[in-house]
Design goal:
The chain has 273 residues and is of the alpha/beta class. The protein is built from nine helices and seven strands. It has a seven-stranded parallel sheet, with helices on both faces. α4 links the parallel β4 and β5. The termini are far apart.
């Protein structure tokens, strides 16, 4: 039973690793977890952006460090896990926020579907499924299982539910992330390790900005189409993902929640005609 006055969303006993925490969405999630009391490791490739996030967290009174990692390398992830354990203790929250689309697998008149190489497909799957989700779960999951405690949050996409035009490989990889999330939720539930996914709608970030805005800052035709299909008629801001992530991370608020996909999409997936 909860102690009277105890917050359902208090993460002060948690150690969170945010892989892809140097990105816009991952970084915002890291700040949100820290604001709820978690000790946070911002992990990624860009040391400058990582330092900015850590600085923002510490200035706000939180605890955070940056650690460089290559999520596609098991060795790099194992080194990260050992480092986190020495720095803050055994990780109890894992956020897999690394990923993105690439021009090489984006369907265009100059790059039709049938000409996209298998190598480009494989690279995108490595980014979003293998390195973005599978390997981190393989490396960090067993420690949580052994301690019978943990929450893993995989970042999916609206395109995992309804494949969007042009981003064919990304959509397929994110659909696989949903399936893997459900598999692990079932496998690790007996060990009190919860595995869920978080699906953002359209949040302007590095990987999609060029598709949403022209050079002068005006919305592209694709952006206008997205907004017309979003009942709330606007893009999301990174901070609007935080509440959902803190909920899924909390062993108190979400103690019986595993295997779900929590959508923060302004109604995008509810819209038909």
């Amino acid at each position: 039973a909860l102690i009277p006055g105890m917050s359902l969303f208090d993460l002060s006993d948690e150690v969170a690793v945010v892989i892809g925490g140097t990105g816009v969405l991952g970084g915002s999630l890291g700040e949100g977890l820290a604001a709820s009391g978690a000790r946070v490791v911002i992990a990624g490739r860009n040391a400058a952006r990582g330092a900015e996030r850590v600085d923002a967290i510490t200035k706000a009174g939180g605890k955070a460090v940056f650690r460089e990692v290559n999520a596609s390398s098991r060795g790099s992830l194992e080194k990260l896990q050992a480092d986190v354990k020495d720095t803050f203790g055994l990780p109890t929250i894992l956020v897999n926020a690394a990923g993105g689309n690439d021009a090489s697998v984006t369907v265009t008149p100059e790059n039709p579907f049938e000409q996209i190489s298998v190598e480009a497909w494989a690279a995108n799957f490595d980014l979003n499924l293998i390195g973005g989700t599978l390997l981190p779960c393989q490396v960090f999951g067993p420690g949580m299982v052994s301690e019978k405690r943990g929450s893993i949050i995989n970042i999916a996409s609206v395109s995992a539910h309804l494949p969007l035009s042009r981003v064919v490989a990304y959509s397929a990889a994110k659909a696989a992330v949903l399936n893997l999330t459900q598999f692990l939720a079932r496998e690790w539930a007996p060990f009190n390790v919860r595995v869920n996914s978080l699906t953002p709608g359209f949040f302007p970030a590095e990987q999609n900005r060029r598709l949403l805005f022209n050079a002068d800052g005006s919305p592209t035709a694709r952006a206008a189409s997205i907004l017309s299909h979003t009942p709330m008629a606007r893009f999301g801001s990174a901070e609007e993902l935080v509440g959902a992530a803190v909920f899924l991370a909390s062993s108190k608020a979400a103690s019986f929640v595993t295997g779900i996909d929590l959508r923060v999409d302004g109604g995008f997936l509810s819209q038909t005609i």
